[in-house]
Records
---
Amino acid sequence: MTTLAVSPLLSESVGDFTKPSIEYFDLSPLLIIIGVALAGVIVEAFVPRRLRYVVQTLVAVVGTIAALVMTVFVALGLEPRGDNAGFGAIAAEGAIAVDGPTVFLWGTILVLTLISVFLFAERHLEGGVTAFAGQAAALPGTEAEREASTKGLEHTEVFPLMMFAVAGMLLFPASNDLITMFVALEILSLPLYLLCGLARRRRLLSQEAALKYFMLGAFSSGFFLYGIALVYGYAGSMNLGDIAEAVSGTIGADPLLLGGIGLLAVGLLFKVGAAPFHAWTPDVYQGAPTAVTAFMAACTKVAAFGALLRLFYVGFGAARWDWTPMIWVVAILTMATGCVLALTQSDIKRMLAYSSIAHAGFILTGFVGLNAVATPGTAELTSLQAVLFYLVTYGFMTIGAFAVVTVVRDSSGEATHLSRWSGLGKESPFVAGVFAFFLLGMAGIPLTSGFTGKWAVFTSAWQGGAWPLVVVAALLSAVAAFFYIRVIVLMYFSDPVGEGPTVVMPSVLTTIVIAVGFAATVALGVVPGPVLDLAAHAGQFVR
Amino acid sequence: MDPTPFIGLSAILFTIGCIGVLVRRNAIVIFMCVELMLNASNLALVTFARVHGNLDGQVAAFFVMVVAAAEVVVGLAIIMTIFRTRRSASVDDASLLKY
């Protein structure tokens, strides 16, 4: 009797259930990566220990390639929206936007992931085991740890963890509503926190890096979430399109909106490592295993900038005049912090971390640039396209440079102290030469991809009227060139200290990574046309 | 419904959490303060959902709870590792990485 009385009420309040439509084809790269991560967990449970390394590596590599192939198909299948409004569509009931920039970023992230998997799988440098802790639960310096290392244990869980992080990175720049963006941010971050703490050597540093990254990351995601709450309170919806409508319909400044923009910016600028939210970057980059550093320095930055651009261009595009001054200040602070503090560093990984902060500043310069091309079809780059191109160049240089760091070693593992690098040019002219080239690329010397990337963001910023920012950026680039070239001088014109550094011959995996990074840096510097065209054809974000 | 008291309470909770993260030294307490910030956001989300008369905010609160639970798993694992190594959960002791 009671059920009869209740059920009409229930059906009335719930309403008719309509099945959500999921565009499986458009989302296939993302779904494949999630599937690969889950498959990795299953492999971990059922495959015998001695086979796990090979199986996990294969699963990760094949899965990433499959996702990459599907990305190409998705890119070819994007429908133009007409009226110069970009390509693509909103998928998954408004939660995910699969458009030109999304597909471009997916492709970038997946290629960078593919070469990062090779770095993760490198076994030659540690004498037959990966660079990750044999038994993360064993305390450093105890019998248990020695036992794990004599048995040659290794944590193959790093591969599924990495794939989960990649899934978050693919979802992050594609998310079209705030709660999807928050969930993606956490899927991206949580595995990275763990990966940072898994180094085989210098485990105290590694664990400390994980703790710092986790604490500050959780703190910043608290800000991000409160920003979501405020913007939702303002707009009444989580959807970026609805937020954009509400923003353009408002006259004057609404405190909820301004507070929300500020708090969301804190969360995102933390992830890209922009000053004054950069404090975690040097510590985490130094302490984390170098393969993880390379992976997160490149891929996290690509994903986080994609999300930053989408949120501010699509969601808050109409409030541009409110947030542009903030980005100006943050960009100048970030470039200055990165360039000046990098001068004083004595650790190579720490120096590269400050250099990545400086690069975040240069990218932010492009971020406030040209809003839209005045006359379509000309060679003008919008800031979105300039930033997309810069992210590609930055990603390859960074992974390449960190890959070189893994092969320069002494008896205690990687020789990261700068003094150990002196005289590397005599020990191994080839490795020193490649590293010097990556440094010149980061400094933005012509004929390297760093130059074309900088040229792209600076022209877009200049045409957008942000010329004072470009002047500051150019001056600070000169400061940055000093500390890059200092390392080159150290490698070639100083005598080795003590026994000097040794270059350990890596397996073919790391060699591929360095070669790909090198080739991309040369190619994008000499013939940037194809990739620039690709970025230009990515069009705008769809709404 | 006047949402002001609820939003006010959530802002106060958020501020307490934020200040707690900045002044406390024990990693577990800092982590609890982060959770307080997340829950303050939940309160704000649910209040705004009521104001706007849609369910987005309430659904978001569920997502946040799940994410917070996942964060606990990862966070406590990291804090436990540090504690077992150093016999201390103070964030001041973890100071090998600097300058």
---
Amino acid sequence: MITHSIAALGRLGIDILRSQGKAGLLLYGAIFRVPSIRKGFPLVIQQIYATGVLSLLIIIVSGLFIGMVVALQGYHTLAKFGASQQLGPLVALSVVRELGPVVTALLFAGRAGSALAAEIGLMKATDQLSSMEMMAVDPLQRVIAPRFWGGSISMPLLTIIFNITAIYGAYLVGVKWLGLDAGAFWSNMQSAVDFHADILNGIYKSIVFGIVVTWIALYQGYEAAPTSAGIANATTRTVVYSSLAVLGLDFVLTAMMIGGW
Amino acid sequence: MNNLVEMSQLGFQRQNRTIFHDIDIAIPQGKITAIMGPSGSGKTTLLRLIGGQLQATQGRVLVKNQDITRLNRRELYALRKRMGMLFQTGGLFTHLTVFENVAFPLREHTQLSENMIRSAVLMKLEMVGLRGARNLMPNELSGGMARRVALARAIALDPDLIMYDEPFSGQDPISMGVLVKLIRTLNDALGLTTIIVSHDVPETLGISDYAYVISDGNIIGKGTPESIAHDNSPQLQQFLTGLPDGPVPFHYPAHTLEQDILGQKSGEPS
């Protein structure tokens, strides 16, 4: 009984290590086996469209509503202390430092990550990847690398757009609806937000999240069992693992940034 | 006669299961060779071993006198440009039109001008009778048409060797007839060497020059279609004539019916 448990534990360990190794090789291939500029550039642009432009609607709508809700909640709390003029800094800091990168990454995992995993899984299940290999075209170079770069480039751009729409949403609620002074709203925000410590750190987070979410999605799709159930599992796992990775990494990155590492 | 592909003492294991055990197969140049066997006998695996997508655990696979297990990635890809493979599902790129699917290998591997690519693609599509379907998307094609497009794509780079994985499965009689004729015509007209992996006995034996039958990891029959048809081995005859019971039993291993019904326990099923 005990030997069985130890053997099972060993097998689990080996399986985990093996999949980590495969994921590492996939990432290595995606980063270094880039196609030539002439062929690769249009492919990356296509993927920026697929992962970035097609995610715009959900990012803009969510950004707008999250900004509006934070402003509404923040206003009522700040008003109790007579500090409602600080609404601009409150919204801007929470959005650019935390909500922007994290919520964008979660939405990105749900919209673009799941689509990537399903697309690659389907290509695998229908022998498109195998036939590409047999045509002497490397799927890592032709399919995985452009998607990796496309996803990693889209994510920070989407975060910037999310931040802008969220702040605009807060402006609509704070200034247009609740009657705060527009000058105070913007100038307080401007003086409280630091470009490096707040905005850039948020963007750095989004770059890391973009790489991680795209990597997870591509790996799950590439290693999916070539069946309908395999593809369904791959998309589910992409969203679950990406969300956990984003939230966990967010804590680590925030600790590093605040701790000044 | 020259052999384009030679597999000697080939062994392959997957997840502790032996798929092939010490088999020797030679594919003569310019001929159609059939590899037949029941489902799950590893026929597709054999094609993947020839294409270098899987690595043999024992023995050698020589393609054009090069040991495919010892090639590096660049050499393997160079060799693959001389091979075409038709997958059971076709493997067409779903986001590209028929024309672009056939043009794909040309765009990837040649520096031909757009005009020349157009002419080459239309010629290949003409060979499979689908020149008129060039603007359709793969989801608008029937199963047989999709296989013909995949065939046009597989011969786009004028390979020396073409491999068909179950080309006839799930085809209506007309598409089957079209595919049978195409495989024979292309082999003869383009001077190809053809390997067909299939379990459709009459169609496959009807067009092949030589055939191997594999089962349980071993070769159970080989020779010309006539000699295979007249072979008296019970295992081979069960496969060729489709008998429900024989060396491959109808029943999955189990306790005897009496033991199961009457609830008697007597150890593991034999």
